[in-house]
Amino acid sequence: MRKLTVRALRALLLVVLAGTVFVQALMVWTLVSGSDPEDGSLPLTALRVITILGVVSVQVALVCVWRLVTMVRHGTVFSHAAFRYVDGVTGAIVVAALVWFAATAVNAPGQRDDPGVTVIMGGVGVAVLGVALIVRVLRMLLAQAVARDVEAARMQAELDEVI
What is this structure's pTM? Predict the structure, then answer.
């Protein structure tokens, strides 16, 4: 990976991380300060807690991607250590989908006149779970690459002994 690509990705990850921390801080401040302008039309407190949990899952994914980019830059991504971070991304995506389903359930009673919104939100949650499955398939490809890398290193060692 080129240095410019890594720097651009890291800059983007930092901006997104800073934005998520800002949103979290605002949500926590609103919950703790008691200045919640909830008028009863929507359960805003529940949605704020759900948002905080969702943001945490995004932050976990960001940190895992940061670590994977670091491994790519150092040429160590084809190792067993990378699985931990890929699993972290997968878990964060699944948690984000579950949090989205919770937000859909909290929002559903307010959508009785237009249930299509709830159906669309449910579809978005299913699509997010689909992304988790894609990352899982990519993990299997990483496992194959690691196995081939280990095998190539073993064969190289045998060849070095012969020579």
Answer: 0.83
Q: In a 3-state reduction of DSSP, which class is residue 2?
A: coil
Range with the poorest average pLDDT among 37-46, 98-107, 142-151: 37-46
Q: Are 11 and 69 in contact (CB under 8 A)?
A: no
Give every CB contact of residue 130 below 8 A, 6+ residues apart in sequence.
Answer: none
The angle at the Cα of 105, spanning 27 to 123, to the nearest 5 degrees, equals 105
Cα torsion 128, 87, 46, 16: sign: negative
Asked if residue 21 lies in contact with residue 15, where contact means CB atoms within 8 angstroms, the answer is: no
Contacts of 136 (CB under 8 A, 6+ apart): 90
Q: Are 62 and 16 in contact (CB under 8 A)?
A: yes
